[in-house]
Amino acid sequence: MLAITLTRRSPAAAGRFARSWYSTGSPTKAESQELFDRVNAFWFAESDRLHADGKPSFQSWWFQQTPSIDKKITDSFSADHSLVVETKAHVSHAKESAAGTLALIVLLDQMGRN
Length: 114
What we know:
This protein is an all-alpha fold. It has 5 helices and no strands. Helix 2 (29-44) packs across helix 5. It is globular, with a radius of gyration of 15 Å.
């Protein structure tokens, strides 16, 4: 299970997305889109395939505990998760698209569980 610790971080420790916009107070739309693309690509990779019966094919690890996936999520997204929780970064850009909104839901709800 991914344990998120909410502590104040310096811009250098907050993740690569924070460093470029920390002094201005908000990420650019391109920086937000990069985060949304990374989250959605990781979470939904190949899940849009259909089984022979026409039902969607989901990630098997969505429904089970998988320590290797949990570690990958922690390593790849815990800084982004903490940053959004602490600063509400990327929220205004997420509201502009369904993909952005979905990415923040996955980041904040699902990735926090893994």
